[in-house]
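Hey,
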Amino acid sequence: MLRQLLNKPANRRKASGFTIVELLIVVVVIGVLAAIVIVAYNGITQQARATATGDALRNVASALQFFARSDALATWPAESSYGGGNPSIATVIANEPTLASSLRAAPSVADIPSNNWRYDNDGDSYDGCSSSGGGINILITGMTTETIQAVDDAVDDGDLACGNVRISGTTILVYSVANTNAL
């Protein structure tokens, strides 16, 4: 009798592997973890793009301010000096040797082509904000509202209605550079 209890019955097989319920639980847990990682990755990517764009904006603004000081400009050159109509930063660089010495090319960061970087000095204003009292604006076209907001959060006050970083329409970032008299 003891022998029979110790031996397994012949018709009973040893259970091996996982049950369907256990496999479903593992798949659900992996799915939840993957979703968390994707959301975190997208947030980190957006933050990195915003930071890179903000750094590039500051570099362009510093180069333009250096150009204004070096050439002792009383006022910023008008857009018409470079052909008008918000010329590209590359066009301004090509026409200003002093600027070209400190800014070799228009930035190309965060999937924003360098041709989307524009020089603006025609006295217009954006969404209720003045153009910094005689300053200029750097425009970046073709951006999403979310990216513009992330750039504003990274380098300015987080308010797209006014401040150093503003929005025009839904796809243009406006970055103000100081009046030459303030340099």
